[in-house]
Amino acid sequence: MKRIMVKKRLLDGRACEKCIQAEELLRQRGVWEQIDEVVWAEEGDANSPGMVLAARHGVSVAPFFIVEEDDGSEKIYKSALLFLREQLSDAPKTSNETDGKSFSMEDLHSFEQQYASRPPKEIITWALQQYGKDCAIAFSGAEDVVLIDMAVRTGLPFSVFCLDTGRLHPETYQFLERVRTHYGIEISMMSPDTTALQNFVQKKGLFSFFEDGHKECCGVRKVEPLKRALRGYRAWITGQRRDQSPSTRGELLVIHQDEAFAGKDGPLVKINPLAGWGLSKVWGYLRTQEVPYNPLHDRGFVSIGCEPCTRPPRPGEHERAGRWWWEEETQRECGLHIAQES
Fold first, then answer.
1. Are residue 228 and residue 165 in the same domain, yes or no?
2. CA–CA separation, 273 vs 120, rounded Å?
3. Do 74 and 109 have their domain in common?
4. What is the CATH number of the domain that holds 235?
5. How far apart are alpha carbons 51 and 57 in whole angstroms?
6. Which residue, of 10, 182, 194, 311, has the greatest Cβ tally within 10 A?
7. What gap in Å lies between CA 86 and CA 340, rounded to an integer?
8. Mind listing the pLDDT tens digit for each residue in 110-126?
9. Angstrom distance (rounded) from CA 287 to CA 21
10. Residue 129 sits in the same domain as residue 79
């Protein structure tokens, strides 16, 4: 077997940023020595060895990996993380799984003070060093894929889940699949309880939220599945930002105990690395790092939820004005980030 990494060299002589990051990931995992050959694709030179390989295999991204088997067959990987998992599974791994220790409220308060103004990647690194796969990123939108991108770059283990309400836009489902394949990660899709959903729709129909508010529908399609998802973790990471909704998220902490949901051991830690970011900073990261995003954003959507309950905000409106637009601004939360009524 032979493992080849194809890297791209830019016109100014530098390696492309993603190639540098992929190499750093493999070095962090202690598996760089298992790359048998590095082949360069020279920008502007179609005859360079890497460009020839890219054309032969129909690959338009860098870096990519080629595994040549002893029988002459080849397998192509466009994701460094997927290549790492499938081809280097017997290599030494960095273990950052939690030892089972639980933090007190005082501990979390101390961590909040320590990390409140730190860059998001440092906050994510701290979380994954503490909890590993017991820490899950709740994924649906632009902020969340920023978190996934940062988590992948740490080289540490983590989990991802998504709430599939059954009412998402077709473009959103395509976006979820693109992120899964782009990063080579598993995404646990959480669906509503079948019986509860059938009973709700039979009783209230498919659009009752326009008449009596979205709370009941979101309770069935989002809150209950979230409760089930979080029971399997000890911490979760969200893409919430304080400026998304000053009336409901203005005092958002970076690290705190979740008062709404419980985890696998009882108390659940909630981490909001982007709490201090604004929308422009999110999109600055998406563009500079070439992170996948939902194509609905190109059609004017900003905050994207279920198809019936989301529209693009009008000129001058706040970014979340298109969510449950028929309700009062202070009611525009689905229940995922507020304390639950007993």
1. yes
2. 5
3. no
4. 3.40.50.620
5. 10
6. 182
7. 41
8. 999 999 999 999 999 99
9. 16
10. no
Q: Look at residues 333, 342, 165, 145 and name the one whose alpha carbon lies nearest to residue 246.
A: 333
Catalytic residue among 19, 162, 306, 334: 334
- For the stretch 241-269, pLDDT in tens is 998 766 666 679 999 999 889 999 888 99
- Are the CB atoms for 40 and 7 separated by under 8 Å? yes
End-to-end CA distance of the chain: 59
Using the 3D structure, point to which of 87, 119, 149 is the last residue of a domain: 87
pLDDT computed for residue 93 by the predictor: 43
Would the pLDDT of 180 be above 70?
Answer: yes
Domain enclosing residue 30, as ranges: 2-87
Q: Are residues 60 and 133 in the same domain?
A: no
Q: How does strand 37-42 pair with strand 2-9?
A: parallel
Q: Which two tokens stand for residue 158?
A: 């983590």
For the stretch 168-204, what's the b/e string if a residue is b when 16 or more beta carbons lie within 10 angstroms of its beta carbon?
Answer: bbebbeebbeebbebbbbebeebebeeeebeebeeee
Per the annotation, the verdict on 334 as an active-site residue is: yes
> Does 97 reside within a domain?
no
Paired with 78 in beta bridges are none
Q: Match 């279920």 to its residue by tokens.
A: 306
Residues 6+ away with beta carbon under 8 Å from 107: none
Rounded CA gap, 335 and 219, in Å?
7
Q: Which of 37, 58, 87 is the last residue of a domain?
A: 87
pLDDT at position 95, please? 41
- DSSP per-residue string spanning 243-255: GG-HHHHTT--SE
Distance CA 274, CA 282 (A): 9
Which pair of structure tokens corresponds to residue 304? 């994207």
How many domains does the chain fold into?
Answer: 2
Paired residues of 269 in beta bridges: 235, 257
